[in-house]
């Protein structure tokens, strides 16, 4: 069959034009589609033209959606929740959290008293205070469990034992307990301390007096170690007298 050069040229031109058109389409497909501005509440969406081309994974807390009727936002990610994009609260978690908050509010919290005197040892909750009548009267009025240690600055036994008292109160760390170091028969003893010694019939230095519920529970001139301090305070301050 004889085909004229005129028809060959025309066919070549048509093929070339088809290639160019096809190439343009391939180029368009190969481009990465760009998302439109985020939808409310932090999601993202793609147009109806982009949806068949793009692959995406929604972050934690978001869910994928498809809405072909919406040309401008046909697919994408939205906050997990209702169809309108609003998040449905987890009421179980909220209620449990509120219950825990209420439980914490109902729990009584021990009050740590503030004293004007010098804290010699112990802890913030269970301090050992250098005796002064104002702090002592405040502790009695607050119905605190009180330990009085009658101390003489010339007494070697007192100097050896008083650090044991400090350590014992620090480990006890109970806001219901306060101790006072009371000077006795030495150069630092004042009138209030002399009156206190007379009130409890103290005749010797390094005597311990334990008071609970406004009454004396124990008086002992013996030397105590930490275990003895712990056991005697537990017994006296739990309500049993000695």
What are its keywords?
37% helix, alpha+beta, three-stranded antiparallel beta sheet, 242 residues
Q: How would you sum up this structure, described in words?
A:
There is one protein chain. This protein has 242 residues and is an alpha+beta fold. It folds into two domains: 52 residues, no CATH class; 119 residues, Glutaredoxin (3-Layer(aba) Sandwich). It is 37% helix and 19% strand. It has six helices and nine strands. The strands form two sheets. The chain has a six-stranded mixed sheet, sandwiched between helices. Strands 1-3-2 form a three-stranded antiparallel sheet, with no helix packed on it. Helix 4 links the parallel strand 6 and strand 7. Helix 4 crosses helix 6. The N and C termini lie far apart (133 Å). About 17% of the residues have low confidence.
Query: What's the CATH first level of the largest domain?
Result: Alpha Beta
Radius of gyration: 43 Å
β-strand amount = 15-25%
Q: Which class best fits the helix and strand makeup?
A: alpha+beta
Q: Report the CATH superfamily of the largest domain.
A: Glutaredoxin
Total strands: 9
Supply the number of structural domains.
2
CATH architecture of the largest domain: 3-Layer(aba) Sandwich
Q: What's the CATH topology name of the largest domain? A: Glutaredoxin
User: Strand order of the main beta sheet, please?
Assistant: 4-5-7-6-8-9
- Describe the largest sheet: 6 strands, mixed
Tally of alpha and pi helices = 6
Shape: rod-shaped
Euclidean distance between termini CA atoms: 133 Å
Q: State the share of residues found in helices, binned by percent.
A: 25-40%
Unreliable stretches (pLDDT < 50, length at least 5) are: 18-33, 85-98, 100-109
SSE order, one letter for each helix or strand: HEEEHEEHEHEHEEH
Mean pLDDT: 77
